[in-house]
Amino acid sequence: MEHDSSKRGAAGTSRRGFLAGLATGASVAASGGALAQVGAHGKARAKNLPPNVPDWSKVLGDGVAAHPYGKPSKFEKTVVRRDVEWLTASRESSINFTPIYALDGIITPNGLCFERHHGGAAEINPAEHRLMIHGLVDKPLIFTMADILRMPRTNRVYFLECAANSGMEWRGAQLNGCQFTHGMVHNVMYTGVPLKVILEEAGVKPQGKWILAEGADSAGMTRSLPIEKALGDCLVAFKMNGEALRQEQGYPLRLVVPGWEGNLWVKWLRRIEVGDKPWYTHEETSKYTTLMSDGRSRKFTFFMDAKSVVTAPSPEMPLIAKGRNVLTGIAWSGRGKVTRVDVTLDGGKNWTEARIDGPVFDRSLTRFYLDFDWQGQELMVQSRAHDDTGYVQPTKEELRAVRGVNNIYHNNGIQTWLVHANGETENVEIS
Amino acid sequence: MSRSRSLTLGVIASALVVSASVALAQTAQKQQKPAPAKAAPAPAAAPVKLGLGAPATPEEIKGWDIDVRPDGHGLPPGSGTAAKGEEIFQAQCATCHGEFGEGKDRWPTLAGGHGSLTHDRPEKTIGSFWPYASTIFDYVKRAMPFGNAQSLSDDEIYSITAYLLQVNDVIKDPNFELNAKTIADIKMPNANGFYDDDRETAEKGFWNRKPCMKDCKTEAKVLNRARVLDVTPDSKGGPKVD
């Protein structure tokens, strides 16, 4: 799905013009480089402003053949996935981040969905892709993509969050940008076949208690999943937001494991083995286990607990004008629906229930807003998600009290942005 | 489309709808009712077969079925020793992991870190952290060497696994023969260091609370800030995108 670039472009352009003015005054220092980003296109030129007739109103625009596959406006060129080079040894086994600060609504455009690969993004000809089902089944089977496309399919919107999202923040505020602190998440509508349909085609034997899902990439990514989940709500998806999966999201086939950590959502899905026990693969022993302060580790920490973050204001989205402003953010829970989001502007002294807008789906990103007036005072902005299991997003201190600081994964603590009097916003932790 | 063809397809379609509606109804129900702590058990009703897919032959399965479990399930014939593994490791692995698995640059450290799991900066290596030796074989076979996956023979993988166990002091004898039988008997130092996710009990306090909304505290002070570290990537110029 492509975003509505006409609306976004218009908003972006006016902000840019405003910021260009601010930047030349040099009164605002760029923290995350955000001001530089949005100011990059320079000032609005008077010749294109009323009462003058702008250039684009006088000449023909692009014809319909100019962009067979449309892309965002060139004025949106800074809205891209970014990576943190020092985080990993190579870019093939690495991660980048969704620019959540620049997005709205609940759907993530396909080209902006963060990527996490363990051996690079495999490029697979769908004619040569096969899905093998074997192990404790009545009849081992191999499916072509054509077979998969003849099965009953369904559409579901789900968030996918990497278990390591916010993992760099366990010991304190580290990265100045919500793209980096919270951008290992995306939310798309999947079209796919219930995994149950595929498993039942092969016939799971009664002693089958776990499945192993394996990717066709050069990391042969594998994870064990309990059979209840596999026969529950998992999907084998081939479309995202209506179009074929992107290569970096597992084209032509990926596993969808609603509400559970992103590492389980095996991309380039080539094989499912049914077994009576888990496999204890590299990704469920060495990685994706959570080390507690007593030196022991939790394993099979599947659920992504309720979490939220304010995406504006944020380090990339400083406040630029006093008076009316829009605070917005996203909330999600791997255990169900988001029922409520509380927001504070004063560091937790007082909270207000945010306005949830747009569809609220089970285990999907949920959009919230707080329309507020800003008089140039310092703000300490936080959000707190509630889900329909009664879970309330904890503070980072509450999490550390239970788990210590070496978990790496599953950091769903409350985020604080400090908005300075000049609107500049930074990542902090507060008492 | 001819009338007879569309009629035939209509029959097939209505047959599909039966099974489809069963599966989809169950999925839909899941979507309405968010997952409780555990996913609901599989329904007992016998599923309707779609008749899709081809039988997977034993040869086809053998070519792809490379996974290995702690109990030895999936381990192939063959064997290796740490003595042989050292040579292979230096040629195939040391560039990234160091001669003794000590790690280079940001590539993973494979050895050392014993007893460090409670330290401020724990070092999670094969010897200090991994619960099962089988995982080494499984992972090396499927994913290593990085960029040249599934290029090593089973004997070479047994030898590399033995070498990694030796540099982690799990096996002492460089000529100890590691094979499908002996690998399952190897006890890793941190084998008992893992337990099932207990968030629903250990973190029960995060559920069903009524957080304060007004006058919750008297002051909020900044304790630490990201900018002090200054590790945020320069975002002035975005990376190239396709």
- Most extensive chain interface and residues per partner: A-B, 128 and 105 residues
Structural class of chain A: alpha+beta
Structural class based on helices, strands and sheet pairing of chain B: mainly alpha
Q: What is the string of helix and strand elements of chain B?
A: HEHEHHHHEHEHEH
What is the mean predicted local confidence, pLDDT of chain A?
Answer: 91
CATH topology of the largest domain in chain A: Sulfite Oxidase, Chain A, domain 2
The assembly state of the depicted protein chains is heterodimer
Low-confidence stretches of chain B: 1-36, 235-242
How much helix, percentage-wise, in residues of chain A? 10-25%
Q: Quote the distance from N terminus to C terminus of chain A.
A: 41 Å
Find the CATH topology of the domain at 77-183 in chain B. Answer: Cytochrome Bc1 Complex, Chain D, domain 2
Q: Mind summarizing the main beta sheet of chain A?
A: 5 strands, mixed
Please, what is the CATH homologous superfamily of the largest domain in chain A?
Oxidoreductase, molybdopterin-binding domain
User: Order of strands side by side in the largest beta sheet of chain A?
Assistant: 5-4-13-8-9
Concise description?
The complex is a heterodimer of chains A (431) and B (242). Chain A contains seven helices and 24 strands.
Describe the overall structure.
Chain A has 431 residues and is α+β, with helices and mostly antiparallel strands. In chain A, 13% of the residues lie in helices and 29% in strands. Chain A folds into three domains: 1-51, no CATH class; 116-288, Sulfite Oxidase, Chain A, domain 2 (Alpha-Beta Complex); 307-428, Immunoglobulin-like (Sandwich), CATH 2.60.40.650. In chain A, a hairpin with a 7-residue loop joins strand 18 (338-344) and strand 19 (352-353). Chain A is globular. The two termini of chain A are 41 Å apart. The relative contact order of chain A is 0.14. By secondary structure, chain B is mainly α. Chain B has a domain at 77-183: Cytochrome Bc1 Complex, Chain D, domain 2 (Orthogonal Bundle), CATH 1.10.760.10. Helix content of chain B is 36%, strand content 5%. Chain B is built from nine helices and five strands; from the N terminus they run H-E-H-E-H-H-H-H-E-H-E-H-E-H. Chain B has a two-stranded antiparallel ribbon with strand order 2-3. In chain B, helix 3 (82-92) packs across helix 6 (154-167) and helix 5 packs across helix 6 (154-167). Chains A and B meet through helix 2, strand 1, strand 4, strand 5 and helix 5 of A and helix 1, strand 1, helix 2, helix 5 and strand 4 of B.
